[in-house]
Amino acid sequence: MKIHDPDHIHAALRAQGSNSRKWSIEHGYHPRTVLDIIQTFAPSKKRKPKRPLSRQIIEELSKTIDFDLLGESNES
Question: Rounded to whole angstroms, how far apart are CA atoms 22 and 4?
Fold first, then answer.
């Protein structure tokens, strides 16, 4: 599945029987923080997180949905 925008991230979580709120609570994050990070750093936004917490959340989401949201695996 190609993940491009925030809706695709939410759909990928739903496909695994979860959602952003459930995922955030299971991983110890505030649901609003995760929602804001998904909206801000989705691949279509072409922004990369600089703060450690934002980067950590995006990396964990990437593992959960099995898609590199940071796009670093494609960079050389």
Answer: 21
- Is pTM, for the whole model, over 0.90? no
Q: Structural domain of residue 24, as residue ranges?
A: 6-65
- Where do runs of H (alpha helix) occur along the chain? 6-15, 20-26, 31-41, 52-65
The single-letter DSSP state of residue 27 is T
74 found inside a domain: no
Asked if residue 70 is part of any domain, the answer here is no
pLDDT tens, position by position, 16-73: 999 999 999 999 999 999 999 999 999 999 999 999 999 999 999 999 999 999 887 6
Count structural domains, the chain: 1
φ, ψ (nearest 5 deg) of residue 24 = -65, -40
In angstroms, the first-to-last Cα distance of the chain is: 22
